Amino acid sequence: MPDHIGLGRSDKPAEGSDYTFRRHVDWISEFVGRLDLTDVTYFGQDWGSLIGLTVVARHPGRFRGIVLGNGGLPNPADPDASARPPCPHPTPAPSAPGRRSPATPPGTTSDACFERASLASRASASTSPTPKPPPTTHRSPTPATRPVLSTWDKPLVCRFGRADPILGWFDDHMIANVPGASGQPRAIFPDGGHFIQAQEPDALVDAIVHVVNR
Q1: Residue ranges per domain, the chain?
Q2: C-alpha closest to that of 174 among 57, 50, 72, 65
Q3: Catalytic position from the list 4, 18, 26, 46
Q4: 82 burial level (CB within 10 Å; 0-12, 13-18, 19+)
Q5: Given 171, 172, 173, 194, which residue is catalytic?
Q6: Would you call 18 a catalytic residue per the annotation?
Q7: What is the pTM of this model?
Q8: Which of 40, 67, 73, 102 has CA 20 to 30 A from 48's CA?
Q9: Which of 9-18, 28-37, 202-211 has the lowest mean pLDDT?
Q10: How many CA atoms, within 13 angstroms, populate the side-chain half-sphere of residue 206?
Q11: Facing residues of 68 across strands?
């Protein structure tokens, strides 16, 4: 998987206006097309899943299945909460885009990296989409994404941490609305947080292997 434009070793346009949801989707779509990728198992998490699922919807024939970990598409009927039940875990206070969270101690890797970054490198982080994308803006999933997933009959497997107060319940919504999720080996971790790939790597690998072997 490439670094997203503006991050890691990828190119870093300096203008904040370069970083829209649609442009990120276009860049990753071009990456998939130029490499002529086929029979791909897609894993997505958090904002990456919004970008990735939209790419999958653009090129469904190139993908054999989907694995999600604490990600998904917003529920248009309840875009802020995806109709999740009340969560006992407190939601961290929001931080300014591109800055460390108040819960992140000064001197941590993320804080230090941002402070040392060049202005060009900061453009992407400082204009990243918010956790709750306005459904009518360029930062939202394209209109074609949800209809494609509503008929998706290839595997969709979920590995979710319930302790994530924002995305810990999106698996319920995705499983209810994507046919390919029916009968798949779902795993829920009551104490699992946002980064399930770090907390439950074996379970995530098992899900990916399951889709690859289908």
Answers
A1: 38-89+131-212
A2: 72
A3: 46
A4: buried
A5: 194
A6: no
A7: 0.73
A8: 102
A9: 9-18
A10: 11
A11: 44, 158
